[in-house]
Amino acid sequence: MSEQIPARADEAFPTDPTDPTDSADPRDVPHMRRAIALAARGLGTTSPNPVVGCVVLDAAASVVGEGFHAYAGGPHAEVVALREAGERARGGTAYVTLEPCNHTGRTGPCAEALLAAGVARVVVAVTDPNPVAAGGVTRLRERGVRVDTGVLTEEAERGNAAWLTSVRARRPYVTWKFAATLDGRSAAEDGTSKWITSPEARSDVHRLRAECDAVVAGIGTVLADDPLLTARPSGEAEPPERLPLRVVVDSDGRIPAGARVLSGPAPTLVAVASDADVPPHLQDAGVPPHLRDVVRLPRTPYGLDLRALLAELHRRQVVSVLLEGGPRLAGSFVREGLVDRVVGYLAPALLGAGAAALGPAGVATIGEIHRLEIEDVTPIGPDLRVVLRPGGRQGSGSAAASLRPAPSKEN
Protein backbone atom coordinates (compact mmCIF):
# COMPACT_ATOMS: atom_id res chain seq x y z
CA MET A 1 0.00 0.00 0.00
CA SER A 2 1.19 3.53 -0.71
CA GLU A 3 1.59 6.02 2.07
CA GLN A 4 -1.71 7.22 3.50
CA ILE A 5 -2.72 10.85 3.32
CA PRO A 6 -1.46 12.31 6.61
CA ALA A 7 -3.94 13.92 8.96
CA ARG A 8 -3.62 17.63 9.50
CA ALA A 9 -3.84 19.14 12.97
CA ASP A 10 -7.55 19.87 12.51
CA GLU A 11 -8.29 16.39 11.12
CA ALA A 12 -7.20 14.28 14.08
CA PHE A 13 -9.21 11.19 14.89
CA PRO A 14 -11.57 11.82 17.81
CA THR A 15 -10.48 10.47 21.18
CA ASP A 16 -14.10 9.57 21.92
CA PRO A 17 -15.52 7.60 18.97
CA THR A 18 -19.13 8.01 20.13
CA ASP A 19 -21.40 10.73 18.84
CA PRO A 20 -24.52 11.51 20.89
CA THR A 21 -26.29 12.89 17.80
CA ASP A 22 -25.81 9.72 15.78
CA SER A 23 -27.09 6.16 16.29
CA ALA A 24 -24.32 4.59 14.19
CA ASP A 25 -22.05 1.80 15.32
CA PRO A 26 -19.35 3.62 17.35
CA ARG A 27 -16.68 1.74 15.36
CA ASP A 28 -17.87 3.48 12.19
CA VAL A 29 -17.73 7.02 13.55
CA PRO A 30 -13.96 7.74 13.50
CA HIS A 31 -13.58 6.41 9.97
CA MET A 32 -16.50 8.46 8.65
CA ARG A 33 -15.23 11.53 10.47
CA ARG A 34 -11.85 11.02 8.80
CA ALA A 35 -13.63 10.78 5.43
CA ILE A 36 -15.42 14.08 6.18
CA ALA A 37 -12.09 15.73 7.01
CA LEU A 38 -10.60 14.43 3.76
CA ALA A 39 -13.59 15.74 1.79
CA ALA A 40 -12.94 19.26 3.10
CA ARG A 41 -9.63 19.33 1.23
CA GLY A 42 -11.59 19.72 -1.98
CA LEU A 43 -13.32 22.95 -0.91
CA GLY A 44 -12.81 25.54 -3.60
CA THR A 45 -11.59 23.18 -6.33
CA THR A 46 -14.38 20.65 -7.01
CA SER A 47 -17.21 22.97 -8.08
CA PRO A 48 -19.69 22.31 -9.62
CA ASN A 49 -19.13 18.86 -8.12
CA PRO A 50 -19.54 18.05 -4.41
CA VAL A 51 -16.69 17.54 -1.99
CA VAL A 52 -16.37 13.84 -1.16
CA GLY A 53 -14.01 11.82 1.03
CA CYS A 54 -13.47 8.06 1.28
CA VAL A 55 -11.69 5.70 3.67
CA VAL A 56 -11.20 2.00 2.81
CA LEU A 57 -10.59 -0.74 5.40
CA ASP A 58 -9.43 -4.27 4.66
CA ALA A 59 -11.24 -7.38 5.93
CA ALA A 60 -9.34 -7.09 9.22
CA ALA A 61 -10.61 -3.49 9.74
CA SER A 62 -7.25 -1.82 9.10
CA VAL A 63 -7.15 1.37 7.04
CA VAL A 64 -5.61 0.56 3.65
CA GLY A 65 -6.74 3.46 1.46
CA GLU A 66 -7.83 7.09 1.67
CA GLY A 67 -8.89 9.62 -0.93
CA PHE A 68 -10.86 12.75 -1.72
CA HIS A 69 -12.27 14.35 -4.85
CA ALA A 70 -9.72 17.05 -5.68
CA TYR A 71 -11.11 18.75 -8.79
CA ALA A 72 -14.00 18.54 -11.25
CA GLY A 73 -13.19 16.02 -13.95
CA GLY A 74 -10.62 14.28 -11.76
CA PRO A 75 -10.95 10.87 -10.11
CA HIS A 76 -13.62 10.55 -7.46
CA ALA A 77 -12.79 9.91 -3.83
CA GLU A 78 -13.67 6.20 -4.00
CA VAL A 79 -11.40 5.63 -6.99
CA VAL A 80 -8.45 7.38 -5.29
CA ALA A 81 -8.90 5.38 -2.09
CA LEU A 82 -9.38 2.06 -3.94
CA ARG A 83 -6.23 2.63 -5.99
CA GLU A 84 -4.28 3.06 -2.80
CA ALA A 85 -5.87 0.00 -1.21
CA GLY A 86 -5.38 -2.30 -4.21
CA GLU A 87 -6.21 -5.96 -3.56
CA ARG A 88 -6.46 -5.32 0.17
CA ALA A 89 -9.86 -3.71 -0.39
CA ARG A 90 -11.38 -7.12 -1.22
CA GLY A 91 -13.76 -8.15 1.55
CA GLY A 92 -13.31 -4.82 3.29
CA THR A 93 -15.38 -1.72 4.06
CA ALA A 94 -15.54 1.66 2.31
CA TYR A 95 -16.67 4.80 4.16
CA VAL A 96 -17.98 7.47 1.80
CA THR A 97 -19.36 10.90 2.71
CA LEU A 98 -21.76 10.93 -0.27
CA GLU A 99 -23.57 8.05 -1.97
CA PRO A 100 -21.35 6.53 -4.68
CA CYS A 101 -22.44 7.75 -8.09
CA ASN A 102 -24.20 5.37 -10.45
CA HIS A 103 -23.71 7.16 -13.76
CA THR A 104 -20.98 7.85 -16.28
CA GLY A 105 -19.99 11.48 -16.70
CA ARG A 106 -16.41 12.66 -17.09
CA THR A 107 -15.54 9.63 -14.95
CA GLY A 108 -17.07 6.19 -14.56
CA PRO A 109 -19.60 5.15 -11.88
CA CYS A 110 -18.08 4.75 -8.42
CA ALA A 111 -20.60 2.04 -7.55
CA GLU A 112 -19.04 -0.15 -10.26
CA ALA A 113 -15.53 0.66 -9.02
CA LEU A 114 -16.48 -0.54 -5.52
CA LEU A 115 -17.99 -3.72 -6.96
CA ALA A 116 -14.91 -4.41 -9.07
CA ALA A 117 -12.70 -3.97 -5.99
CA GLY A 118 -14.67 -6.63 -4.12
CA VAL A 119 -15.68 -4.41 -1.21
CA ALA A 120 -18.08 -6.27 1.09
CA ARG A 121 -19.61 -3.30 2.90
CA VAL A 122 -20.14 0.38 2.11
CA VAL A 123 -21.04 3.00 4.74
CA VAL A 124 -22.63 6.21 3.42
CA ALA A 125 -23.16 9.48 5.29
CA VAL A 126 -25.47 11.30 2.83
CA THR A 127 -27.60 9.86 0.05
CA ASP A 128 -27.25 11.71 -3.26
CA PRO A 129 -30.17 14.11 -3.96
CA ASN A 130 -29.11 14.48 -7.60
CA PRO A 131 -31.32 12.10 -9.62
CA VAL A 132 -28.74 11.98 -12.42
CA ALA A 133 -26.05 10.46 -10.18
CA ALA A 134 -28.12 8.72 -7.49
CA GLY A 135 -28.76 4.99 -7.36
CA GLY A 136 -25.39 3.78 -6.16
CA VAL A 137 -26.82 2.38 -2.93
CA THR A 138 -29.45 0.39 -4.81
CA ARG A 139 -26.90 -0.90 -7.32
CA LEU A 140 -24.54 -2.08 -4.59
CA ARG A 141 -27.29 -3.81 -2.64
CA GLU A 142 -28.54 -5.56 -5.77
CA ARG A 143 -25.07 -7.06 -6.17
CA GLY A 144 -24.94 -8.32 -2.58
CA VAL A 145 -22.91 -5.55 -0.94
CA ARG A 146 -24.05 -4.56 2.54
CA VAL A 147 -24.78 -0.83 2.57
CA ASP A 148 -25.40 1.21 5.73
CA THR A 149 -26.53 4.82 5.40
CA GLY A 150 -27.02 7.75 7.75
CA VAL A 151 -23.67 7.68 9.59
CA LEU A 152 -22.72 11.21 10.70
CA THR A 153 -25.21 12.58 8.19
CA GLU A 154 -25.57 15.99 9.82
CA GLU A 155 -21.82 16.48 10.07
CA ALA A 156 -21.27 15.41 6.46
CA GLU A 157 -24.07 17.67 5.24
CA ARG A 158 -22.49 20.67 6.95
CA GLY A 159 -19.25 19.95 5.10
CA ASN A 160 -21.09 19.69 1.78
CA ALA A 161 -23.71 22.35 2.49
CA ALA A 162 -22.91 24.47 -0.57
CA TRP A 163 -23.37 21.68 -3.11
CA LEU A 164 -26.43 20.26 -1.33
CA THR A 165 -28.09 23.68 -1.30
CA SER A 166 -27.31 24.10 -4.99
CA VAL A 167 -28.96 20.78 -5.85
CA ARG A 168 -31.90 20.97 -3.47
CA ALA A 169 -32.77 24.67 -3.63
CA ARG A 170 -31.42 25.31 -7.15
CA ARG A 171 -29.52 28.38 -6.04
CA PRO A 172 -26.01 29.01 -4.70
CA TYR A 173 -25.18 28.66 -1.03
CA VAL A 174 -24.66 32.15 0.44
CA THR A 175 -22.13 33.02 3.14
CA TRP A 176 -22.28 36.56 4.47
CA LYS A 177 -18.90 37.72 5.72
CA PHE A 178 -18.39 40.89 7.71
CA ALA A 179 -15.73 42.56 9.84
CA ALA A 180 -16.72 44.80 12.72
CA THR A 181 -15.81 46.22 16.09
CA LEU A 182 -17.38 44.76 19.21
CA ASP A 183 -20.12 47.37 19.00
CA GLY A 184 -20.99 46.24 15.48
CA ARG A 185 -19.43 49.07 13.47
CA SER A 186 -17.90 48.35 10.07
CA ALA A 187 -16.59 51.90 9.53
CA ALA A 188 -15.86 55.02 11.54
CA GLU A 189 -18.08 58.11 11.51
CA ASP A 190 -16.01 59.65 8.69
CA GLY A 191 -16.40 56.50 6.59
CA THR A 192 -12.88 55.10 7.06
CA SER A 193 -12.70 51.34 7.58
CA LYS A 194 -9.08 50.27 6.87
CA TRP A 195 -8.27 48.38 8.89
CA ILE A 196 -10.72 47.29 11.59
CA THR A 197 -9.42 43.74 11.79
CA SER A 198 -5.90 42.32 11.80
CA PRO A 199 -3.74 41.02 8.93
CA GLU A 200 -4.41 37.50 10.21
CA ALA A 201 -8.18 38.01 9.85
CA ARG A 202 -7.79 39.50 6.38
CA SER A 203 -5.68 36.52 5.34
CA ASP A 204 -8.44 34.22 6.55
CA VAL A 205 -10.92 36.13 4.38
CA HIS A 206 -8.78 35.30 1.34
CA ARG A 207 -9.10 31.64 2.29
CA LEU A 208 -12.89 32.06 2.39
CA ARG A 209 -12.86 33.69 -1.03
CA ALA A 210 -10.76 30.90 -2.50
CA GLU A 211 -13.29 28.32 -1.27
CA CYS A 212 -16.20 30.06 -3.03
CA ASP A 213 -17.20 30.25 -6.68
CA ALA A 214 -18.23 33.90 -6.56
CA VAL A 215 -17.61 36.98 -4.41
CA VAL A 216 -20.48 39.49 -4.34
CA ALA A 217 -20.27 43.17 -3.40
CA GLY A 218 -22.56 46.15 -3.80
CA ILE A 219 -21.77 49.26 -5.79
CA GLY A 220 -21.51 51.27 -2.56
CA THR A 221 -18.56 49.16 -1.45
CA VAL A 222 -16.94 49.41 -4.89
CA LEU A 223 -17.24 53.21 -4.90
CA ALA A 224 -16.08 53.63 -1.31
CA ASP A 225 -13.24 51.08 -1.07
CA ASP A 226 -12.36 50.18 -4.69
CA PRO A 227 -11.70 46.53 -3.75
CA LEU A 228 -10.01 44.03 -6.06
CA LEU A 229 -12.08 41.10 -4.69
CA THR A 230 -9.54 38.45 -5.65
CA ALA A 231 -8.44 35.53 -3.51
CA ARG A 232 -4.84 35.53 -2.28
CA PRO A 233 -4.70 32.87 0.45
CA SER A 234 -1.62 32.19 2.58
CA GLY A 235 -0.16 35.60 1.83
CA GLU A 236 0.44 34.81 -1.84
CA ALA A 237 1.51 37.84 -3.86
CA GLU A 238 -0.43 36.66 -6.91
CA PRO A 239 -3.96 35.21 -7.05
CA PRO A 240 -4.20 31.40 -7.37
CA GLU A 241 -5.00 29.77 -10.71
CA ARG A 242 -8.66 29.29 -9.78
CA LEU A 243 -10.24 32.75 -9.50
CA PRO A 244 -13.76 33.24 -8.07
CA LEU A 245 -16.18 35.19 -10.20
CA ARG A 246 -16.44 38.79 -8.98
CA VAL A 247 -20.05 40.03 -8.92
CA VAL A 248 -20.99 43.70 -8.49
CA VAL A 249 -24.63 44.52 -7.71
CA ASP A 250 -24.99 47.88 -9.45
CA SER A 251 -28.66 48.71 -10.10
CA ASP A 252 -28.05 51.95 -12.00
CA GLY A 253 -24.79 51.12 -13.77
CA ARG A 254 -22.61 53.51 -11.77
CA ILE A 255 -19.41 51.45 -11.74
CA PRO A 256 -16.49 53.60 -12.97
CA ALA A 257 -14.24 52.51 -15.80
CA GLY A 258 -11.20 52.53 -13.53
CA ALA A 259 -12.67 50.33 -10.81
CA ARG A 260 -10.14 47.70 -9.75
CA VAL A 261 -12.83 45.02 -9.77
CA LEU A 262 -12.88 45.38 -13.57
CA SER A 263 -9.13 44.74 -13.84
CA GLY A 264 -6.90 41.71 -13.52
CA PRO A 265 -7.37 38.12 -14.63
CA ALA A 266 -10.42 37.31 -12.51
CA PRO A 267 -13.78 37.38 -14.33
CA THR A 268 -16.34 40.02 -13.35
CA LEU A 269 -20.12 40.07 -13.69
CA VAL A 270 -21.94 43.38 -13.22
CA ALA A 271 -25.65 43.09 -12.39
CA VAL A 272 -27.72 46.11 -13.41
CA ALA A 273 -31.44 46.82 -13.44
CA SER A 274 -33.35 45.95 -16.59
CA ASP A 275 -34.22 49.63 -17.11
CA ALA A 276 -30.70 50.99 -16.44
CA ASP A 277 -28.25 52.36 -18.97
CA VAL A 278 -25.15 50.21 -19.27
CA PRO A 279 -21.96 52.33 -19.15
CA PRO A 280 -19.98 52.28 -22.40
CA HIS A 281 -16.90 50.82 -20.68
CA LEU A 282 -18.93 47.72 -19.83
CA GLN A 283 -19.72 47.25 -23.50
CA ASP A 284 -16.09 47.32 -24.61
CA ALA A 285 -15.87 44.84 -27.47
CA GLY A 286 -12.18 44.38 -26.77
CA VAL A 287 -12.80 42.69 -23.42
CA PRO A 288 -13.52 38.95 -23.67
CA PRO A 289 -17.02 38.14 -22.34
CA HIS A 290 -15.63 35.46 -20.02
CA LEU A 291 -13.71 38.22 -18.18
CA ARG A 292 -16.37 40.93 -18.11
CA ASP A 293 -20.09 40.42 -18.50
CA VAL A 294 -23.32 42.28 -17.71
CA VAL A 295 -26.64 40.81 -16.66
CA ARG A 296 -29.91 42.73 -16.47
CA LEU A 297 -32.26 41.89 -13.60
CA PRO A 298 -35.69 43.16 -12.45
CA ARG A 299 -35.94 45.86 -9.82
CA THR A 300 -37.76 45.43 -6.52
CA PRO A 301 -38.72 48.06 -3.90
CA TYR A 302 -35.39 47.26 -2.19
CA GLY A 303 -33.07 47.12 -5.20
CA LEU A 304 -32.25 44.36 -7.65
CA ASP A 305 -34.16 41.09 -7.48
CA LEU A 306 -31.69 38.99 -5.50
CA ARG A 307 -33.47 35.73 -6.18
CA ALA A 308 -33.12 36.43 -9.89
CA LEU A 309 -29.42 37.16 -9.32
CA LEU A 310 -28.90 33.83 -7.55
CA ALA A 311 -30.86 32.04 -10.28
CA GLU A 312 -28.52 33.57 -12.87
CA LEU A 313 -25.46 32.51 -10.87
CA HIS A 314 -26.89 29.00 -10.53
CA ARG A 315 -27.32 28.91 -14.31
CA ARG A 316 -23.61 29.74 -14.56
CA GLN A 317 -22.80 26.75 -12.29
CA VAL A 318 -21.94 28.92 -9.30
CA VAL A 319 -22.41 26.68 -6.26
CA SER A 320 -21.22 28.96 -3.45
CA VAL A 321 -21.26 32.73 -2.96
CA LEU A 322 -19.33 34.90 -0.50
CA LEU A 323 -21.30 38.07 0.20
CA GLU A 324 -18.84 40.77 1.24
CA GLY A 325 -20.66 44.04 1.29
CA GLY A 326 -21.86 46.48 1.99
CA PRO A 327 -24.36 46.70 4.83
CA ARG A 328 -27.32 47.64 2.63
CA LEU A 329 -26.81 44.69 0.29
CA ALA A 330 -26.26 42.34 3.23
CA GLY A 331 -29.47 43.59 4.81
CA SER A 332 -31.35 42.87 1.60
CA PHE A 333 -30.02 39.30 1.48
CA VAL A 334 -31.00 38.77 5.12
CA ARG A 335 -34.43 40.31 4.54
CA GLU A 336 -35.07 37.89 1.68
CA GLY A 337 -33.99 34.84 3.70
CA LEU A 338 -31.06 34.16 1.37
CA VAL A 339 -28.20 33.85 3.87
CA ASP A 340 -27.15 30.29 4.74
CA ARG A 341 -24.10 31.04 6.88
CA VAL A 342 -22.60 34.06 8.63
CA VAL A 343 -18.87 34.49 9.23
CA GLY A 344 -18.06 37.49 11.39
CA TYR A 345 -14.60 38.82 12.25
CA LEU A 346 -14.82 40.80 15.48
CA ALA A 347 -12.03 43.16 16.49
CA PRO A 348 -11.45 43.94 20.20
CA ALA A 349 -12.18 47.61 19.57
CA LEU A 350 -14.99 50.15 19.97
CA LEU A 351 -16.11 53.03 17.74
CA GLY A 352 -19.42 54.17 19.22
CA ALA A 353 -20.51 55.72 15.91
CA GLY A 354 -20.25 54.99 12.22
CA ALA A 355 -21.75 52.55 9.75
CA ALA A 356 -23.25 49.35 11.10
CA ALA A 357 -22.16 46.01 9.66
CA LEU A 358 -25.76 45.21 8.67
CA GLY A 359 -28.27 47.50 7.06
CA PRO A 360 -32.07 47.31 7.35
CA ALA A 361 -33.03 43.63 7.33
CA GLY A 362 -36.80 43.71 7.60
CA VAL A 363 -36.99 43.69 11.40
CA ALA A 364 -39.56 46.11 12.79
CA THR A 365 -40.08 44.51 16.18
CA ILE A 366 -38.14 42.14 18.42
CA GLY A 367 -40.45 39.30 17.49
CA GLU A 368 -39.07 39.43 13.94
CA ILE A 369 -35.43 39.13 15.01
CA HIS A 370 -33.21 36.88 12.93
CA ARG A 371 -31.92 34.17 15.27
CA LEU A 372 -28.61 32.36 14.66
CA GLU A 373 -26.81 29.40 16.16
CA ILE A 374 -23.11 29.66 16.94
CA GLU A 375 -21.23 26.88 15.20
CA ASP A 376 -17.64 27.89 15.90
CA VAL A 377 -15.63 30.60 17.68
CA THR A 378 -11.91 30.76 16.84
CA PRO A 379 -9.25 33.36 17.71
CA ILE A 380 -7.66 34.75 14.53
CA GLY A 381 -4.68 36.84 15.58
CA PRO A 382 -6.09 39.40 18.05
CA ASP A 383 -9.59 39.04 16.60
CA LEU A 384 -12.38 36.49 16.90
CA ARG A 385 -13.92 34.62 13.99
CA VAL A 386 -17.50 33.58 14.71
CA VAL A 387 -19.28 31.16 12.38
CA LEU A 388 -23.06 31.07 12.69
CA ARG A 389 -25.95 29.43 10.90
CA PRO A 390 -29.68 30.09 10.98
CA GLY A 391 -31.56 28.32 13.73
CA GLY A 392 -32.94 24.85 13.06
CA ARG A 393 -31.30 21.51 12.54
CA GLN A 394 -29.39 20.65 9.38
CA GLY A 395 -29.89 17.45 7.45
CA SER A 396 -33.68 17.50 7.48
CA GLY A 397 -33.96 16.33 3.89
CA SER A 398 -34.30 19.80 2.41
CA ALA A 399 -31.74 22.44 1.63
CA ALA A 400 -29.64 23.68 4.52
CA ALA A 401 -31.55 26.10 6.71
CA SER A 402 -31.28 29.76 5.77
CA LEU A 403 -32.47 32.94 7.40
CA ARG A 404 -36.21 33.21 7.09
CA PRO A 405 -37.57 35.98 4.84
CA ALA A 406 -38.85 39.05 6.62
CA PRO A 407 -42.63 39.55 6.50
CA SER A 408 -43.53 41.26 3.26
CA LYS A 409 -45.06 44.73 3.56
CA GLU A 410 -45.66 44.93 -0.19
CA ASN A 411 -48.44 42.33 -0.41
Describe the overall structure:
Helices cover 22% and strands 22% of the residues. It is α/β, with parallel strands linked by helices and 411 residues long. The strands form 3 sheets. Strands 10-9-8-7-13-6-14-16-15 form a 9-stranded mixed sheet, with helices on both faces. Strand 1 and strand 2 (63-68) form a beta hairpin. Helix 3 (110-117) runs parallel beside helix 4 (136-142). Mean pLDDT is 85; it is low at 1-22, 392-400 and 407-411.
Secondary structure topology:
Blueprint: H1 29-39, E1 53-57, E2 63-68, H2 77-85, E3 93-98, H3 110-117, E4 121-126, H4 136-142, E5 146-149, H5 153-159, H6 161-169, E6 173-181, H7 199-211, E7 214-218, H8 219-225, E8 245-249, E9 268-273, E10 292-297, E11 299-300, E12 303-304, H9 306-315, E13 320-325, H10 327-335, E14 341-347, E15 372-380, E16 383-390
Parallel strand pairs: 3-4, 4-5, 6-13, 6-14, 7-8, 7-13, 8-9, 9-10
Antiparallel strand pairs: 1-2, 1-3, 11-12, 14-16, 15-16
Helix pairs in contact: 3-4
